[in-house]
Amino acid sequence: MQRYTSCLYISILCTLGGFFMKQLTRTLIGGLLAGTTGLLLAACSDSGDQGQAEQTEAKPTVTVYSARAEHLIQPIFERYTEETGVKVRFITDSAGALIQRLKAEGSNTPADLLLTVDAGNLWQASQEGLFQPVESEVLERNIPDHLQADNNDWFGLSVRARTIVYSTERVDPSELSTYEALADDQWQGRLCLRTAKKVYNQSLVATMINTLGEETTEEIVSGWVNNLATAPHSNDTSAMEAVLAGQCDVTLVNTYYFGRLQKDNPEVKLAIFWPNQDGRGVHVNVSGAGLTKHAKQPEAAQALLEWLSSPEAQEQFAEANQEYPANGSVEPSDFVAAWGDFKADSVNVESAGRLQSDAIKLMDRAGYR
């Protein structure tokens, strides 16, 4: 305001000067005064425009620590920036490494959001005190209760099912029924599994403990171990490749791993079977995110989290990895929908983290490593 007042004052002086000096060389002096006045007013105007531009450009930058791969998140963050003007800076690493980094950085962390895979990892971050609760009607409306933390620390953003994949050449799907049935004698020497050292089967076993109890679950896992055709595999893709090679007939995988294999080879001799449809349903898990405890841009980070739960973002977020949207109002992609409908286990995925330690101990006792 002071700058504009000064400019106006100068303009008035210039005008008065022109009146009292009209007996002098009017044309020359008037021209100089008019030019000077114009330059002064233009300078004031330019200064005002610049101030408005700086105010318009003063958008925050949200920093995300992501265990989700760069090629899966970069396009959607770029879209958010295009729509809102808010820039998203992200750093990718494994879930464990990012959790340890947040702990080490403490209040000095630049991270505003932690985005990671598996409810077990999200639960662990929450237990370490790395999140702050988010009160949001948008998130409560968009994300079902069983796909979010009870304390509002984190929210699921996409869903993956851990299900049975079988050889279409050697298995009749009528032989299949439940996770538990894979412990039966008929599958001896026909089962392949991913290593117990990875979180995905730990989460499956944890939710089984939650539903079936520890004793029954240990009997089932021991039966799986007895039926293994090979040593546990390092990842889901390796287990499916073993089925294709005839080393085993069935395995347990996250649906998006099957999706990747099917994308590369639409004629692959494998198929999905949805277990436990007459009971609790298929085990599902999430990738999700939470607002970090020491976020420097909490409001902007919450706005991004809410946007990621919206129908417009959910479609892209899930489709990028052949997953299911966490927002129940959004349909999966045609590619994923072609696998068929299924009943999902409605137990809160938080149990995958809460009972993870028990699951690891149980698997070790059963000889599943």
TrEMBL record:
<feature type="binding site">
    <location>
        <position position="257"/>
    </location>
    <ligand>
        <name>Fe cation</name>
    </ligand>
</feature>
<comment type="similarity">
    <text>Belongs to the bacterial solute-binding protein 1 family.</text>
</comment>
<keyword id="KW-0479">Metal-binding</keyword>
<keyword id="KW-0408">Iron</keyword>
<dbReference type="InterPro" id="IPR006059">
    <property type="entry name" value="SBP"/>
</dbReference>
<keyword id="KW-0732">Signal</keyword>
<dbReference type="GO" id="GO:0046872">
    <property type="term" value="F:metal ion binding"/>
</dbReference>
<dbReference type="GO" id="GO:0030288">
    <property type="term" value="C:outer membrane-bounded periplasmic space"/>
</dbReference>
<feature type="binding site">
    <location>
        <position position="256"/>
    </location>
    <ligand>
        <name>Fe cation</name>
    </ligand>
</feature>
<dbReference type="InterPro" id="IPR026045">
    <property type="entry name" value="Ferric-bd"/>
</dbReference>
<protein>
    <submittedName>
        <fullName>Iron(III) transport system substrate-binding protein</fullName>
    </submittedName>
</protein>
<dbReference type="Pfam" id="PF13416">
    <property type="entry name" value="SBP_bac_8"/>
</dbReference>
